[in-house]
Amino acid sequence: MNVADYTRLGAAALSGKVRSGEIAPSEVVVAAFERARDIGGGPDALNIILHSDQDASVAETKDVQQHLDTAADVGILAGVPVAIKDNIASLGLPTTCASRILGGYVSPFEATAVTRLRANGAVIIAKTNMDEFAMGSSTENSAFGPTRNPHDVRCVPGGSSGGSAAAVAAGITPIALGSETGGSVRQPAAFCGVVGVKPTYGRVSRYGLVAFASSLDQIGVLGRTVDDAAIGLEVIAGFDKADSTSSDADVPIYRVSALGKPAPEARHPDTEAMRIGRSPVPLPPPPGPTTLKGIVIGKPKEYFPESLDPSIRSHCERALDRFRSMGAVIRDVSLPRSPLAIPVYYVLAPAEASSNLARFDGVRYGLRIDPGKGLKPMYDATRSQGFGAEVTRRILLGTYVLSAGYYDAYYKKAQAVRTLIADDFRAVFAEGVHAIFTPTTPTPAFPIGAISDPYEMYLNDIFTVTANLAGVPAISVPIGRVRRLPVGGQIIAAHFDEYTMFRVAYALEAALGEEAHQ
Amino acid sequence: MPVTRQDVLHIAELARLGIDDTRADALTTELSSILVHMEVLSQVDTAQVAPAAGVGAGGTPLRPDATVAPLMESTLESFAPAMRDGFFIVPRLATHEDSSESGA
Lengths: 518, 104
Hints:
The structure holds two protein chains of two kinds. By secondary structure, chain A is α/β, with parallel strands linked by helices. Chain A is built from 16 helices and eleven strands. In chain A, helix 6 packs parallel to helix 7 and helix 10 crosses helix 12. The radius of gyration of chain A is 22 Å and the shape is globular. Chain B is mostly helical. In chain B, 24% of the residues lie in helices and 4% in strands. Chain B has two helices and two strands. A two-stranded antiparallel sheet of chain B has the order 1-2. In chain B, strand 1 and strand 2 form a beta hairpin. The longest helix of chain B has 15 residues. The radius of gyration of chain B is 22 Å and the shape is flat. Chains A and B meet through helix 10, helix 11, helix 12, helix 13 and helix 14 of A and helix 1 and helix 2 of B.
């Protein structure tokens, strides 16, 4: 398969060509690796991929080919190459979280989301670079060096799922998995000019996602188009016996590409061996992206401050105009506690991280550094040399806010304010607003090394972190360029209403067309 | 500053992180400059607000109390730093040089 053709095709088109027999799945995978090599060399190498094995990935396509040969159902993602963030466990390739402490670690089990991708015909071709343990907004915190932005190699791709966003933006895969705790899919999607979706908390199983902050973590999807992201989420969503926080809510058909096409349903295998529960029967696919009549879109004033980059504001206003022209009503709304979200997040997330990362102690897996002076010096040496600066900082911050004398003032207080932030979203949606529109980030991608102050880096998440705290779904869609760099617009919907979120996202993508990338 | 050098050394001990003197000074400044931004939370009236431990709907369900074999595709020995007879090997808890470990 011609590499140029490969990089132009979305997941639905690629899968369609494989299912029709036009292209062999092995050809698609080889094209993906050729594309990765094309952009992976030289002094400006993007450093997107941490682990890959072309022979193993090509061998994996034999199952897909066998299904094709026997006319069996090959799945909605038949032969589609997918990249996986390196904090999501996958059999066969290492899972290091871009950390020294997990250098070379190969998981003995697989994340449910990855198993579902494979069950639907996808081929895992790479594990992608990220901020260590997903702590960061630039992918500069990787123990294996920063990833560069495919649109400008001097700039960061965002983070923490920067490798996955860059893989999609660079045409290596049409779909990649990332993870979110405070915006780690949507922010890099915005910086790299791709689509990034964070589902409702509980929509996707966290089994096999290395825990950072368990009450916030969710696996998300990056795609070149809204359709790619919709297919990806449709496949990985649904109840999982192995994650008690996963929901058994209906999983609708999100993709418009399902309209009038003979695409199969996403599979939700229900075997004890896979420990995956069945989701209820899907709802009908959404209407085509031509009208938003009857849809009310909220414009929250707190997300359009005076300090917002004027070019980003202007792109957002253009998007809002397009919504109006498609029949949507734009309503000014307020989410008054949103300005408190960054302080709340940076109390709660480090607190949970300090507990979750206690498991990395040099005893059962990963790095062990033993000075030969007993157990405690082994713990101290392993963890201090295994974790990077930002992870160390957050573990200490979390330990501090949970320690005696500070628990009520910081941790319990932040939990209460989280309730207020979630109440703000509930109130807006209860008043008849179907979706909320905001910029995804306050600025476009910044140069590598430009931000050294930790709190200034945290402010990158200022427009995204509220959706994580409230648990609602949100998507970032390209809405234009500023100084040649992509910017994203964010659509937030009510709990488990990804259906409406995708409908609005499809409409915006169709209305902007090529302007989304200009 | 909200955080003192002594605080940093104390929480590093709790977190089992070896921190040298230079790093302790830097972390004191860094953590203080982050925590100063959290002070705004103290001004929010939350007297009547229940803290949110999470956002999952319907609480945490229980599964049958039945033994399920771990889904391991490889053996513990394939990734453990040190194992013998099915047990993880760790350094000894205490030494004669470090009596503080004797009560652990």
